[in-house]
Design goal:
The protein is α/β, with parallel strands linked by helices. It has 9 helices and 9 strands.
């Protein structure tokens, strides 16, 4: 079966979150059928990648399959290795589409998200991957100055014009709402990534940025596509101090991997030293600016945690065996 677009939903214990996402996707697909011009007609499918769930995720998907339209099949697969990278690799093995769009189980796509994902690929044939415009749907009000750390919770609002992520900026979109051209993935991403994702036993994240760094390093373009809009549900506990500090710590600890990917072997020692000096500079400036505020200002505390973890990233990853 020839498929243009696969929508993949990696999930862990998503029994309660998945229904709203699946219902939104049904609306997306109905909308695409109604408004598509002859040049925009395409085929698609949906895959739920169960990342070793212990709840009734499988039974839930089976229940939806009974009433799901055969025009855009809903499939289920199981990935026993815990971690987002393993789930995404499994998604690419299962996907029949030339494009693979990823939605987290707390991402609610706009009605035209599927169509917009397909159309952008046709208009940008050199795009290896492109991210969505992602709005936060907060259960409680975020802390003051939250916009400074919002991108780390996969909230991406960069205006309403497409933007290309330039390699020299060292900035890439999150995996939530990300569409990847399968050809780009097959040509660039290794079967085993260094970073595999957050689990109960591992706090290091960044597996999505590692994936995109491989794609970008081989000359594929990475874009922001504001026409693909998503509401990202943020429950109250994801805005609590303990969670945010641990999230920023995990992001910081992953940074040595993504920082080094763009350099040749002989350049890496110089880049390592430059990043080390820059991280120390950022820490010193941050402490001078905020001083005692880091104890009371959650956003400032999160930023300091990111800088400290980025500084220790190469040493932490080596000690923990990520490079063995």
């Amino acid at each position: 079966m020839n498929v243009d677009l696969t929508v993949a939903i990696p999930t862990y214990n998503g029994e309660k979150r998945l229904p709203e996402v699946l219902e939104r996707l049904q609306t997306c697909c109905q909308q695409a059928m109604l408004v598509a011009s002859p040049s925009e007609q395409f085929s698609w499918e949906v895959i739920v990648v169960d990342n070793n769930s212990t709840d009734n995720t499988a039974a839930l998907v089976q229940a939806y399959q009974k009433s799901w339209s055969k025009q855009y099949p809903l499939r289920y697969c199981f990935e026993p290795k815990q971690g987002a990278a393993f789930a995404r690799h499994h998604a690419f093995k299962e996907a029949r589409g030339k494009l693979v769009g990823f939605l987290d189980d707390d991402n609610l796509p706009a009605p035209d998200w599927v169509r917009a994902a397909y159309v952008f690929a046709q208009e940008h044939p050199h795009a290896g991957a492109y991210g969505s415009q992602i709005h936060g749907l907060f259960e409680v009000a975020p802390p003051e100055n939250f916009e400074r750390i919002a991108p780390f919770l996969a909230i991406t609002e960069r205006g309403y014009q497409p933007l290309r992520y330039k390699p020299e900026r060292k900035l890439l979109p999150p995996s939530a709402g990300l569409v990847v051209r399968k050809q780009a993935w097959l040509e660039t991403v290794p079967n085993q990534q260094i970073l595999t994702g957050r689990t109960h036993n591992h706090i290091v994240t960044g597996e999505d940025l590692e994936m995109l760094s491989y794609i970008q390093a081989r000359g594929w373009e990475i874009w922001y596509n504001p026409s693909m809009e998503i509401d990202h549900k943020i429950p109250h506990w994801r805005l609590e101090r303990y969670y945010l500090l641990n999230l920023l710590r995990g992001i910081g600890l992953s940074r040595h991997v993504t920082r080094m990917l763009g350099f040749k072997t002989w350049q890496k020692p110089l880049a390592f030293a430059a990043y080390l000096i820059n991280d120390l500079r950022k820490i010193a400036l941050h402490l001078l600016k905020y001083r005692q505020q880091v104890r009371t200002d959650l956003v400032a505390a999160c930023e300091l945690q990111l800088f400290l973890s980025s500084l220790s990233s190469p040493f932490y990853l080596w000690i923990k065996g990520y490079y063995h």
